[in-house]
Amino acid sequence: MSAKSIQKNIAIRQLWERLFIIIGLLSLLVGIVSLIALIADLAMDGFPRLSWQFFTSFPGRKPEQAGILSAWVGTILVMLVSAIVSIPIGIASAIYLEEYAPKNWVADLIEINVTNLAGIPSIIYGLLALGLFVQQLDLGESILTAGLTLSLLVLPIIIVTTREAIRAIPNSIREAAYALGASKWQTVWDHVLPYSFGSILTGVIIGLARAVGETAPLITIGALTFIAFLPDSPLKSEFPYLSFNWLKAPFTVMPIQMFNWVSRPEPEFQLNAAAAGLVLIVITLGMNGIAIYLRYKFRQNIKW
């Protein structure tokens, strides 16, 4: 091949590369501009509605007096249960599958199913929770049931991201620990987990950020669209200072409250839904921002 032909091929490839870059940038700009436009429209409708009364009032028939008190309290309690259940089980499962499980067809089958579970529509988890938690275990339409339902939704995400984080740790770190006489668990606990903790935490928060906006599985298990009371406080003034009655309380969450307001014909309730959506977006962005910041801090402290 002559030098002229080589230069021609290089020019064509560079042209295709520039074309691909332009298409990629345009695609990225379309997504970003659309997202900014939607958030701006939501902010213009909902921001005037945000006030202290909006956060401290129960839903009501009068849109100017209605608030999201029961919704955001229910969201926090449901996510608390979900985090307590899903985080330790998900991380422990990932550690076992990645570090301890024998490499055979059973482990491959489990890995395939866990990966597939991460992509299953959320309504399927709601149907599973309805049959298992509500009907079989008789937990009722409660905060506990909602937290366990979202735990099922989040678990595959935590397992997959944790495994990827552990897998990214170089084997030389494990070999160095073994050479110094460390056991399998000492190697995992003292070396593998500290180095991968930033990425694990990112996956956990991203999973919980997805769960905080879910509506379909919670509607399936019987979440209420209107609640004008709060569950019992988890803290008590007398010994043992903890109460678990709130786990059995009925609940609602912010996405369901938004759904209730959007389904009403009055335009004032649409503004309330926009304000609640703005709060939910801020919560989600805040959780993702915390994940990015913590990952950055942990990686700064790590010395390879």
TrEMBL record:
<keyword id="KW-1003">Cell membrane</keyword>
<dbReference type="InterPro" id="IPR035906">
    <property type="entry name" value="MetI-like_sf"/>
</dbReference>
<dbReference type="InterPro" id="IPR005672">
    <property type="entry name" value="Phosphate_PstA"/>
</dbReference>
<keyword id="KW-0472">Membrane</keyword>
<feature type="domain" description="ABC transmembrane type-1">
    <location>
        <begin position="72"/>
        <end position="291"/>
    </location>
</feature>
<keyword id="KW-0813">Transport</keyword>
<dbReference type="Pfam" id="PF00528">
    <property type="entry name" value="BPD_transp_1"/>
</dbReference>
<feature type="transmembrane region" description="Helical">
    <location>
        <begin position="20"/>
        <end position="40"/>
    </location>
</feature>
<dbReference type="GO" id="GO:0035435">
    <property type="term" value="P:phosphate ion transmembrane transport"/>
</dbReference>
<feature type="transmembrane region" description="Helical">
    <location>
        <begin position="71"/>
        <end position="97"/>
    </location>
</feature>
<comment type="similarity">
    <text>Belongs to the binding-protein-dependent transport system permease family. CysTW subfamily.</text>
</comment>
<feature type="transmembrane region" description="Helical">
    <location>
        <begin position="274"/>
        <end position="294"/>
    </location>
</feature>
<dbReference type="GO" id="GO:0005886">
    <property type="term" value="C:plasma membrane"/>
</dbReference>
<keyword id="KW-1133">Transmembrane helix</keyword>
<feature type="transmembrane region" description="Helical">
    <location>
        <begin position="215"/>
        <end position="231"/>
    </location>
</feature>
<dbReference type="GO" id="GO:0005315">
    <property type="term" value="F:phosphate transmembrane transporter activity"/>
</dbReference>
<keyword id="KW-0812">Transmembrane</keyword>
<feature type="transmembrane region" description="Helical">
    <location>
        <begin position="117"/>
        <end position="137"/>
    </location>
</feature>
<protein>
    <recommendedName>
        <fullName>Phosphate transport system permease protein PstA</fullName>
    </recommendedName>
</protein>
<dbReference type="InterPro" id="IPR000515">
    <property type="entry name" value="MetI-like"/>
</dbReference>
<feature type="transmembrane region" description="Helical">
    <location>
        <begin position="143"/>
        <end position="162"/>
    </location>
</feature>
